[in-house]
Amino acid sequence: MANAKNTICVWYDKDAEEAARFYAKTFPDSAVGAIHHAPGDYPDGKKGDVLMVEFTVCGVACIGLNGGPTFKHSEAFSFQIATDDQEETDRYWNAIVGNGGKESECGWCKDRWGISWQITPRVLTDAMAAGGAEAQRAFQAMMTMQKIDVAKIEAARRG
């Protein structure tokens, strides 16, 4: 990852390494890379503390920065994970919510560190791409859900 031209930097209070290890365990093509320790004291940490963690989530290069409690997460940033079926949707949703996270609406949830995730079955994105009445029906069905129900989206697509 050291040669990546673009890397997503995600701010954590102090748990970047724990979060990165959870993501690596939960999602395919995900791993924890180098762990960088602070070379000196800084406003929210001490020399030797974990300062940055390199990791990937589904092949996307990220850095977790332990920057302290100054900045909070919002839904303005999220990871969107495309799923192929209900089993995969359930697995990721349950992993995030079951590890101290929170459910939200329309396929969104937050992990225990406050990072937003969209667990999005491809059937939903395909319906939206189809446009017209099919997209409208799928959208209306989605608006009633927290975790996306693939069978209900498929039924809505058919009309």
Quick summary of this structure?
The chain is α/β, with parallel strands linked by helices and 159 residues long.
Pattern of helices and strands: EHEEEEHEEEHHH
Distance between the termini: 46 Å
CATH topology of the largest domain: 2,3-Dihydroxybiphenyl 1,2-Dioxygenase, domain 1
Strand content: 25-35%
Gross morphology: elongated
Continuous helix count: 5
Residue runs with pLDDT of under 50 for 5 or more positions: none
CATH level-1 class of the largest domain: Alpha Beta
Give the strand tally.
8
How would you sum up the major sheet?
Answer: 4 strands, mixed
Average pLDDT for all residues: 96
| Secondary-structure arrangement, i.e. CATH architecture of the largest domain | Roll
Number of domains: 2
Q: Strand sequence of the main sheet, in spatial order?
A: 1-4-3-2
What is the share of helical residues? 25-40%
Q: Helix- and strand-based class?
A: alpha/beta
- As a whole number of angstroms, the C-alpha radius of gyration is 18 Å
The CATH superfamily of the largest domain is identified as: 2,3-Dihydroxybiphenyl 1,2-Dioxygenase, domain 1
